[in-house]
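Researcher: I'm comparing several assemblies side by side, and this is the next one on my list. It has 797 residues spread over two chains. Same procedure as the others: predict the full complex and return the structure.
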Amino acid sequence: MHALTLPAPSHYDEMLLPSGAIRPHYQPFANWLHAQTPEALAKKRAEADLLFHKVGITFAVYGDEAGAERLIPFDTVPRIVPASEWQMLEAGLRQRVSALNRFLWDIYHDHEIIKAGLVPAEQVFANAQYQPAMQGLDLPHGIYAHITGVDLIRHADGGYYVLEDNLRVPSGVSYMLENRKMMMRLFPELFAQYPVAPVAHYPTLLLNTLRHASVADSPTVVVLTPGPFNSAYFEHAFLAQQMGVELVEGQDLFVKDDYLYMRTTVGPRRVDVIYRRIDDAFLDPLAFRADSMLGVPGLLSVYKQGNLILANAIGTGVADDKSIYPYVPEMIRFYLGEEPILHNVPTWQCRKPAELDHVLTHMAELVVKEVHGAGGYGMLVGPASTAAEVEDFRLRVRANPANYIAQPTLCLSSCPTFVESGIAPRHIDLRPFVLTGRETTMVAGGLTRVALKAGSLVVNSSQGGGTKDTWVLEA
Amino acid sequence: MLSRTASQLYWMSRYLERAENLVRMLDVTHSLSLLPQSRGALTELAAPLAVTGSLDAFHARHSRLDSEQLFNFMALDQDNPASVLSCLRFARENAHAVRGQITAEMWEAINASWLEAKEMPRRGIPSVSAFFDWVKERSHLFRGATYGTLQRNDAYCFIRLGTFIERADNTARLLDVKSQLIAPAQANLMPVDAPAESAPDFYAWSALLRSLSAFEAYHAAYRDSLDGRRVTELLILRPDVPRSLRACCDEIRAILPQIEAAEGALDAGRHVKQLAGKLAVQLEYGSVDEIMALGLHDWLTGFLTRSARLGEAIRAAYLEAN
């Protein structure tokens, strides 16, 4: 019925074994798929497009004048994660995020891990994301990263690896929630066959996490957005609405007598917790970028007096920097005395001469990234690049080696995906969201991003990636 | 509620109401321009431009005023900030900024309207009448979604406040322009309150009533032929005609106490409530004789000044507070 293209044998496919047989947890889905006509499925996909458009689940692409708002393509083949795999992932995520929070507390207090010689001092203190203003500041419960998004991939060996940690303002959780709503609407019959763990309670968990972050009795929580022109504005509005809190912009807030207030129709009202969706640099024009129109003058002084909680805290970027990433397994051993459950991708640090040599020699086989880059910008995928592009990047790395790391070209696992010719394997990753409050919580799921171009390994929505619903099966 | 949020909700509904009233006005202009007596009647065509203050902008872009140019400029021209399309865009932009405060149904209604509208200049429209009906339908849909789904809270109040402030303003302007078009023609022959016996007058008053969906109400209320005096009474003083000035001001006066207020003297809304109360009382106890004695145009000018003052007070008390 459907043209199902087989995956290349070089990587792991979520649904198909190399022989072309179906993996057991995908069998019910495969049976269901076999019974559908291509026309009926095409109709469902068109319906999904229309619904997403109407709901306005859009994102803005920077530097794209015409497409001020675009839909993220949604694929209707789910990514299915067996219960046993999720149990391992969840334990690994708890462990990793816990160590990262301990690391942040440490580098803004006694620097034990540096004194122990495990992380070089210059990697921390010379890092542009390190915020000296945070040194010695005690945050309630010692939590820095209340919300963490961890990007995972599955390699050819079938194992999961952490590609990067996102400790600043990780986005995408609204797509996780909306994708599930869409799949339940389009294909309710599939949910009768699969015990899919629910994700819809995420906003409740988030609100609890934010409330707990404050020591105030009945804290007022708000979501701070840069405004409707931000690429993730939909998500900011969505989360504020789902949590039942105000969505504020910098202009709605002001500082008076060491407290932060919002302007309301009944006068000023105090704000205790900000779930901020703007970067450190824009938070307070008096303390950081003076040209920021997005922040609130004086916010940092309120924060330093302990009269305000920011989630995430200021200065978390130093821990998700690509130059710090190679040290996370050491952090887990150092702070928790445990062996890491989730593995890092092997990483060459170009700032080390021996590793730089290796990178320069093998550049055409490697993925080379700027240590401060994000969103798929400023990176080279060696095998997918022309000789000229590789040469150009080689010059850039040589000019400023400390600004780059390199990793082997990973075989991201693939998942069957609707494409023009039918259903073909496309590469995917996974971003679960971890909440740290009174306890560490997460919903069983995450955002699965898919690279829609054949062979492409870049899943970022800004680079033509799409999303899938992620089904974690209950045991 | 955040002052900015209140402001965006209020302007969202004002712009949507304005779009609807604009097509009502264009509709009446369009039907009158089809009458043999009105062919080439420039004053008739210029009315929508005069009401929206767009005469200069139109002449800067177009050398000749005809119904097609008028329609293109006032309906589909995205560069004209007073056009229907621009109003729909502003409404949608405001809705986008407060989408967390409105229901999914409301957002989908307003967003889908804009997505469809913005393609119209390129794709073309089946007919002007179909366009007028479409805009009214989309406005009804949004209002229905608001009525049927939104929690009765401050957001609901500010949305409705925007609707009635805008509607009162638009009805007054429409009545002013149309009565001036009809009155001078009659001035030499008969008093303005004489029955509209000539066919052009009949069509002019009935088109005005139809554009405000008040034609049926007129007949139910008076069971008599059309005349300017009764039309004036209906559109200004009747409390049971949803687009009359009286009905709009009654709504405004009823909405204001429902908005959450600070205690006692701190209540910035007190001044607003006073102004709204005065405006409503004046209509409640006014008579058509007084209006005619003063002259309809002068009376309406006074009304527009007072309603603008009310709008200003709302802005100061709620929308740009602190």
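Model: For your comparison table: Chain B touches chain A at residues 1-6, 93, 96-97, 99-101, 104, 107-108, 111-112, 115, 154, 259-262, 266, 268, 318-319, 321-322 (CB under 8 Å).
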